[in-house]
Amino acid sequence: MVLTAALSATNSCLFSTSRTLHALSHGGNAPKRFMMLSKSGVPNDSLNFSTLVLFIIVILNYFMPASVFTLISGVSTINFVLVWVILLWCHIKYRQTNPAGAKTFRMPGYPVTDWVSLIFFCAVLVFLLFNASTRVSMIISLVVFAVMLVVYQVVYRPVSVENGNVQK
User: Fold this and answer.
1) Which of 35, 44, 46, 48 could disulfide-pair with 18, CB 3.0 to 4.6 Å?
2) What does each C-alpha distance from 51 to 18, 55, 75 come to in angstroms?
3) Where is 167: in which H helix or E strand?
């Protein structure tokens, strides 16, 4: 029964990640090769990439069986927290640019709740950096995040909009 559950979870993971890569490529947020579908409608390149990443995790499990779960779950947790830090920072910047904010939904306690949440998440990240069991996960996450940021800056050359004029 455990094996069946593990196989089912793996199948679900491969299906969802390959379809997510496929959708991201349609939005211009992943390589265009992930857009292609097979004759039967399967995003094979996305599926193969997802399988490769899963295979890397299997190899990691072979070389570090006692700590691979901590590593993978740590990277996942840290990336989740980093996404929230980015979202909160974007909300603060958006509200500074648009003081009226959204008309239909107001952030309760803005700006205090944004800043308190941001400080909390940053404190969590600092704790994870100094915690021996999650330090490697934090370093991996920060390095990958920095590489993605540099690649984005180099490849996409972000566009800035000032006074309604688009500038590169």
Assistant:
1) 46
2) 9, 6, 18
3) strand 165-167
Structural domain count, the chain: 2
Whole-prediction pTM value?
A: 0.68
Q: What's the domain range around 45?
A: 1-63
Write out the chain's pLDDT in tens, 168 residues: 777 887 788 788 888 888 888 998 888 888 888 888 889 888 889 999 989 988 888 898 888 888 888 888 888 899 999 999 999 999 888 888 887 767 777 778 888 999 999 999 999 999 999 999 889 999 999 999 999 888 888 887 666 656 555 555
Mark whether 76 and 109 lie in a shared domain. yes
Rounded-to-integer distance, Cα 19 and Cα 50, Å: 10
